[in-house]
Design brief:
By secondary structure, the chain is an alpha+beta fold. The protein has one domain: START domain (Alpha-D-Glucose-1,6-Bisphosphate, Chain A, domain 4, 2-Layer Sandwich). It is about 30% helix and about 40% strand. The protein has two helices and seven strands; from the N terminus they run βαββββββα. It has a seven-stranded antiparallel β-sheet with strand order 1-7-6-5-4-3-2, with helices on one face. A hairpin with a 4-residue loop joins strand 4 and strand 5. Helix 1 crosses helix 2. The termini are far apart.
Length: about 160
């Protein structure tokens, strides 16, 4: 099962990269679905993020999930991670690839390509899972948009505060 999300924002790509890429371990700072998050290791390939969910996500109960960065490219503003512990038993693999593209000095596109492989016995539930995840994913997108917009505003304020 695949979920592709694209958001176009009126913010610089750098602001989106700061929130998603540079602060990969701090996702709990801006989304209500994660109670705590922390990075284990130095940010880059092999680092792990441990997230404790604050609530259920769609049909899945709150849990602690460990994700490993398998790709991390600041120059291309892309990263990929895979959940290695804590995913529901109905999934055999959960991975997500994020890309941030600049569409000009003050616009960007965020693309997430999440893949959930389901266990053979759970496959018939895929349509239901997709429907149940729609609302939480929309909320996540709203929170992400807000976090990136706040970062862009803070960046403008930091630049304005610098003496010339």
């Amino acid at each position: 099962m695949e979920f592709i999300t694209q958001l176009e924002l009126n913010t610089p790509a750098r602001a989106a990269w700061t929130v998603l890429g540079e602060r990969f371990g701090q996702i709990a700072e801006w989304t209500g679905s994660i109670e705590t998050s922390r990075l284990i290791g130095e940010l880059g390939v092999g680092a792990q993020r441990v997230c404790r969910s604050s609530q259920s996500f769609g049909p899945f109960p709150a849990s602690i999930v460990t994700e490993t960065l398998e790709e991390y490219d600041p120059a291309q503003m892309r990263f990929r991670y895979t959940a290695v512990e804590g995913i529901p038993a109905m999934f055999t693999r959960a991975t997500n690839l994020w890309r941030i593209e600049s569409l000009g000095p003050s616009r960007c596109r965020l693309t997430s390509r999440a893949e959930l492989r389901m266990a053979w016995w759970a496959a018939p539930m895929a349509p239901l899972v997709r429907v149940m995840m729609r609302k939480p994913m929309q909320e996540f997108e709203r929170e992400l948009r807000g976090a990136v917009e706040r970062e862009a505003s803070a960046g403008v304020e930091r630049v304005a505060a610098c003496p010339t």
